[in-house]
Amino acid sequence: MRNRVLSFVYTAASAAIIYKSSFLLIVTWASFVVGVPGNLLSAVAWLRADMTSRNSSAVYLGALSIVELAAVNLLVLRTWFADHPVDIAMSQAVFMLFNIAAGIIMAVSVQQFIVYRFPSRVS
């Protein structure tokens, strides 16, 4: 009886691991399919000369789209190099890119606060 219970637990755990890895693989590729074209279009739209000359937030948002594009590409590369020593370096690079993205979002928020708080002093 105990062997059957252990066998069932082992089979259920194996199925959960396979489901989790399949789900993560699907989510990774879906984010690649949606993220790359979206971030490319966003970078092109925000970094045009007429947008950056009128709107200083456009530079921040263009930089954010480029950082996110690099992060999405590294996440896909991590799926190819799973269980490889390069995977650790890619994980650290993705973590760094997400922190840079958070810093850019914070810079946009601070800039918008300054524009809102001191409207006459902003040129």
Give an account of the 3D structure.
There is one protein chain. The protein is built from 4 helices and no strands. The chain has one domain. Helix content is 88%, strand content 0%. The longest helix has 45 residues, at 2-46. The protein is elongated. It has helices at 2-46, 49-54, 57-80, 85-117. The protein has 123 residues and is mainly α. Helix 1 packs antiparallel against helix 3 (57-80) and helix 3 packs antiparallel against helix 4 (85-117).
Strand content: under 5%
Q: What's the number of domains?
A: 1
Give the structural class.
mainly alpha
Query: Which segments are poorly predicted (pLDDT under 50) over 5 or more consecutive residues?
Result: none
Mean pLDDT: 81
Count of alpha/pi helices: 4
